[in-house]
Write a structure and sequence with these properties.
Layout lengths: L1 H24 L13 H14 L4 E5 L2 E13 L12 E19 L10 E4 L4 E5 L2 E2 L4 E9 L5 H12 L7
Antiparallel strand pairs: 1-2, 2-3, 3-7, 4-5, 5-7, 6-7
Length: 171
């Protein structure tokens, strides 16, 4: 009897693990099957990214967008405000020719410490952080775009235009 329970438990665990990976196996463009106020903005952003990064994977879940192509884990460390070095940590970033972008719509105004927009040098890639505000919707987009040194100036220009005009794409 115990052997049957173990086998059944193992089978259920295997099935659970397999089904949790199914969305990742479904193709190059994974998209949530739910409605979001950011649907039109997502489609506009996705069109731009596909033009410059044809193998980009993407998804929209609730009010969060994710785009990624040719990324890997980097070990980075940065100086503290005191000048001492922090312990290194792992972070995902783009290889040359790759891109990584996370966008989230948040209520209210951005109240973070950094003056935005601003680009941070992570040695292997740069991270552009933006927080354009919409007074009409009392919300802002919190944007992290990680890109390598060989990013297209044309892509960055078009990305700025879409992100800064984001509220016209809201449903």
């Amino acid at each position: 009897m115990i052997d049957i329970i173990r086998k059944t438990s193992f089978l259920l665990l295997t099935l659970l693990c397999f089904t949790s990976f199914l969305p990742l196996l479904g193709g190059a463009h994974v998209e949530a099957q739910q409605h979001s106020r950011l649907d039109r903005f997502y489609k506009e952003s996705k069109t731009l990214l596909l033009r410059h990064y044809p193998q980009v994977t993407s998804h929209l879940r609730e009010e969060k967008l994710h785009f990624e192509q040719n990324t890997r884990i980097f070990i980075v460390h940065e100086p503290r405000k005191t000048g001492e070095w922090q312990d290194p940590w792992e972070t995902r970033g783009p290889n040359p020719g790759g891109i990584l972008c996370e966008i989230e719509m948040r209520q209210g105004k951005y109240e973070g410490a950094a003056v935005l927009p601003q680009t941070f040098d992570k040695r292997y890639f740069n991270v552009l952080v933006m927080a354009p505000y919409s007074q009409k919707h009392n919300a802002y987009l919190y944007v992290h775009l990680s890109y390598p040194a060989n990013v297209s100036d044309d892509f960055l220009k078009q990305f700025f235009e879409i992100v800064n005009g984001w509220e016209k794409y809201l449903d």
